[in-house]
Amino acid sequence: MNNSSTIVSVQNISKSYWREKLEIPVLSNISFDIPDGEFLSLMGPSGSGKTTLLNLIAGIDRPTSGTITVSGNNITSLNETSLAKWRSNNVGFVFQFYNLLPVLTAYENVELPLLLTKLSKKEKKEHVQFALETVGLADRMDHSPKQLSGGQQQRVAIARAIVTDPTLLVADEPTGDLDKHSAEEIMILLERLNSELKKTIIMVTHDPRAAEKAHTTKHLDKGELS
């Protein structure tokens, strides 16, 4: 792991939501850095703010105060259009429930993030094939999600997340909907993406076995990080 450069810097981040006139604090004055090439696991009880923190780093949500810098870009200062563009170029998302489109094949699901790019048809095909080969599903590219097991669907989702060669891979409970064997396979795959493709991965998980695969684990509780 390369500790010499910081890829994500979270500075004095707080996040509150409002329910009518009631302020509900979720994160309180959090600061930490993530080195390039890190595999970080965020753990903590339900409602501790793990997914909120992940969404802030990924540019899906905005902090109430504080700044987040990714690869030197202060993403908290970007307007909605610039932030959406930054997200599509820099962040790959892996969710608990795969979020695959049932009417599309594995190939077409993985290709989706590339439709907004200026890549040629040939380049798109190369990217999709590389991503599916990386997750071990090159032989399933014409299958629809319903023809695939849960573990295979999550691998397609991971291929979709890496097809744009993102700066960050963010995973929210990537093994949460899988049996023990499939969960283990997904964690081995994420470990490989980190070690071989040098992907920086930030993962929210409840599963101690999944967290063991990460280099570093941070715990959130009542909006504070330890």
Provide structural commentary.
β1 (6-19) and β2 form a beta hairpin. α4 packs across α5 (150-162). The protein has helices spanning 50-57, 80-90, 106-111, 121-134, 150-162, 180-196, 208-211, and strands at residues 6-19, 22-35, 39-43, 65-70, 73-74, 91-94, 168-172, 200-204, 216-221, 224-225. 40% of the residues are buried. A six-stranded mixed beta sheet has the order 6-7-8-3-9-10. A four-stranded antiparallel beta sheet has the order 2-1-4-5, covered by helices on one side. It is globular and about 50 Å long. With 226 residues, the protein is an alpha/beta fold.
Could you give a quick summary of the protein structure above?
The chain is an alpha/beta fold and about 230 residues long. The chain has seven helices and ten strands. The longest helix has 17 residues.
Explain the layout of strands and helices.
Blueprint: E1 6-19, E2 22-35, E3 39-43, H1 50-57, E4 65-70, E5 73-74, H2 80-90, E6 91-94, H3 106-111, H4 121-134, H5 150-162, E7 168-172, H6 180-196, E8 200-204, H7 208-211, E9 216-221, E10 224-225
Parallel strand pairs: 3-8, 3-9, 6-7, 7-8
Antiparallel strand pairs: 1-2, 1-4, 4-5, 9-10
Question: Sheet with the most strands?
Answer: 6 strands, mixed
Number of helices: 7
The parts where pLDDT drops under 50 for at least 5 residues are none
Give the amount of beta strand, in percent.
25-35%
Q: What percentage of residues falls in helices of 4 or more residues?
A: 25-40%
Run of helices and strands: EEEHEEHEHHHEHEHEE
The N- and C-terminal alpha carbons lie at a distance of 22 Å
Question: Structural class of the secondary elements?
Answer: alpha/beta
Determine Rg (CA atoms, Å).
17 Å
Strand arrangement, major sheet: 6-7-8-3-9-10
Total beta strand runs: 10
User: Roughly what is the average pLDDT, rounded to an integer?
Assistant: 87
Q: Using the alpha-carbon principal axes, give the shape.
A: globular
